[in-house]
Amino acid sequence: MMNKPLLLGTVFAGCALISACGGGQNASRDQIRAVGSSTVYPFAKAVADSMAKSNPDIKSPIIESTGTGAGMNLFCKGVGAQYPDIENASRRIKMSEFEECAKNGVDKIIEIQVGLDGIAFAEAIKGPAGFDLTPVDIYKAIAANPFGKPNTAKLWSDVNPALPKEPILVYGPPTTSGTRDALKELILTKGCETDPAMKALKQSDKDKHDKICGEVRTDGIFVDSGENDNLIVQKLEANPAAIGVFGYSYLEENVDKLRGLTINGVTPTYESIADFSYPGARPLYIYVKQAHLDAIKGLKEYVAEWAKSWAKGGLLTKAGMVVAPDDVQAKNAKVVAELTPLDPAELK
Prior knowledge:
- Strand 1, helix 2 and strand 2 form a beta-alpha-beta unit.
- Residues about 1-25 have low confidence and may be disordered.
- It contains 15 helices and 11 strands.
- It has helices at about 5-20, 40-55, 70-75, 95-105, 135-140, 155-160, 180-190, 195-205, 205-215, 230-240, 250-255, 270-275, 300-310, 315-320, 325-340; strands at about 35, 60-65, 85-90, 110-125, 130-135, 170, 220-225, 245, 260, 260-265, 280-290.
């Protein structure tokens, strides 16, 4: 008897060819659909536009900015025309997400690291200009319960006397965003684990550790600003005393309006992200369903277009993405050429 994933893939291939698998959401598609990260969104659009120009017989892909987490949820729901072909992600897929995908028949996923980005902390050009932050400063400022105690800090100087006597107000990403996950992993947890007791807690009670180290304030000091990072830029312009957290590319696009804040004395720049000296540097990914490659017109070409676009000085660099190291580029170019599925043993 044919197993479930193979059966789903076979039925879907038939749908793509003859549009006979039902109407509405279940009808076949002649257009690529991608969901996921707001950080990856402008890069995915640039690649889509480039492919459409060089392949006029292929419709430009539909790219939706849903956030990495919400996108993963949509991506993992199943194989078929009603489900997305690609997930754009500003963090790596989690083992729990891979397992959820597999449970729904999405058991062969191609992972491609397309470049680098950074979680940038920024203020308006007219801001206080006195912020030289560390992960522990940020953790003490926006964690709900820093080191296990309720957060009562109101001013940045309450966190660190060397910081300005300015009210703490941080506009940042929502829980559905990969940027929020990276903020937790790269900045908040690092600040939290400067306390040996918190570092030890990770071994004795991981759930409690994640709660203390990763949860942010809900008292209006950290403001969830949705998946539109341009909205954070606008809010910073309107309130120069505030700080924003978003992908580095949005900072680079708005250098006439914003100033990047240093973390551990390192300013977010192309170079500091490329060499990972900036603490907020992170890889960016796309995930592709192998079962959709032959069923959706243009999907293979779109994936190949990413590899054509990620060289230094290429399309993605011009769009603000930081180029991955040479060895990472070579490894992922091979994945694109061979369309090799991800080995789940590599995941946490």
